Amino acid sequence: MSMAMVGMIAGMALAFAGYFGGFGAFLLVAALGAIGFVVGRFLDGDLDPGDLFRSRERDDRRR
Asked: Where are the bilayer-spanning segments (predicted)?
């Protein structure tokens, strides 16, 4: 499935949540979608847990 299709499905889910559930449901769906995206990237091996907690400033000072 292409990323355009995934984006379209995510947008439609947010639109339905916003229309039928209000702004609170829109925010909940958006937050859960972002968490699911991060977990999916981690499980695919594209993201290391240390990348989320390591600051960029620390890396620049070491070089």
From this structure: 12-39
